[in-house]
Write a structure and sequence with these properties.
Elements: E1 4-5, E2 8-9, H1 10-34, H2 40-56, H3 62-81, H4 83-105, H5 116-136, H6 144-154, H7 160-179, H8 181-203, E3 208-214, H9 218-229, E4 234-239, E5 246-254, H10 256-269, E6 274-280
Antiparallel strand pairs: 1-2, 3-5, 3-6, 4-5
Helix pairs in contact: 1-4, 1-5, 2-3, 2-7, 3-4, 3-6, 5-8, 6-7, 7-8, 9-10
């Protein structure tokens, strides 16, 4: 019988566990100590925690603030979108708070001192990989994701992506008044790095090259691709709009390390071939990634 927890498969649950752990580790070990606001509820928690520390001398944990800020958002989202929508987000919220508590109480320190650049890079990497893993399961870390969806439900003219950008921008701007300009600039670097990593994980990490080959010797090139690279290729009938002549174009996908060999094959057969090389972010199928997503 397949393991299920809140409707999650065994694989998804432990992926969320790992993702939230990495995300929380980056926040607790690099962002919070040096005052880098990352956006989202975690960033807002860092701001509020520092305000309480400066104004009242109180050390309010990020794990507690993460829960308290998420409670009203979660309730409203439940009422508007229903239990099914918020179920996976609840797991994310609880696990982020759990890991923040763990890394605060049982610190696994990777001390970067006052090196704000190193802290920003490491925060961006841990946050990006962590959130990417969580989002790949269809879950979220809660907070601003749910808030953006709420705004969209009430005001459909505001897209979720734009609303999320505005919310995170406001949080980072708030950080400017607490931590200053330099920290705000580095916070933007964190967002840039994490967003790139999130997109890479969601789009796939197995980059390949898609190659289009226009040649009068397409049959010979095709045979050599089969023989030397053991790669399938497709012939596409095409027409040059300037010459009005019918022609044939080959389409083949290869790993980057195979690209040099492919160009050598083409060059030996037809030095005048016209070649277009594009990046393929993820390839599914025989000879590439065949696992179910």
């Amino acid at each position: 019988m397949m393991f299920k927890f809140f409707g999650l498969s065994y694989k998804d649950f432990f992926t969320i566990m790992l993702g939230t752990a990495l995300f929380s580790f980056g926040i607790e070990n690099f962002a919070n100590p040096i005052g880098l606001v990352t956006g989202g509820v975690a960033g807002l928690s860092i701001i509020i925690s520092r305000i309480f520390s400066m104004a009242f001398g109180l050390n309010v944990s990020l794990s507690l603030l993460n829960i308290l800020i998420n409670i009203p958002i979660f309730i409203f989202s439940w009422l508007v979108n229903g239990a099914k929508f918020v179920k996976k987000s609840l797991i994310g919220i609880l696990l982020v708070s759990f890991w923040l508590f763990v890394f605060q109480k049982f610190a696994i320190k990777m001390d970067v001192g006052n090196d704000i650049f190193a802290a920003a890079i490491l925060t961006g990497v841990f946050d990006g990989v962590g959130l990417g893993l969580v989002l790949k399961t269809g879950a979220s870390s809660g907070g601003t994701d749910m808030l953006a969806n709420l705004v969209y439900k009430i005001f459909p003219k505001f897209s979720i992506s734009i609303t999320l950008f505005i919310i995170d921008a406001l949080i980072i701007l708030s950080g400017f008044f607490v931590f200053g300009l330099i920290n705000t600039v580095y916070a933007i670097i964190i967002i840039f790095i994490s967003s790139k990593l999130i997109n890479s994980i969601l789009g796939g990490l197995r980059f390949a090259k898609a190659v289009f080959i226009l040649s009068q010797h397409s049959n010979e090139i095709s045979e050599k691709i089969f023989e030397k690279l053991d790669r399938g290729n497709t012939e596409i009938t095409c027409r040059g709009m300037y010459t009005k002549k019918e022609g044939r174009m080959l389409f083949v996908v290869v790993w980057p390390k195979e690209l040099v060999k492919l160009k050598r094959i083409i060059g030996q057969i037809d030095p005048n071939a016209f070649i277009t090389i594009c990046s393929a972010q993820e390839v599914l199928g025989k000879g590439f990634l065949t696992d179910e997503l």
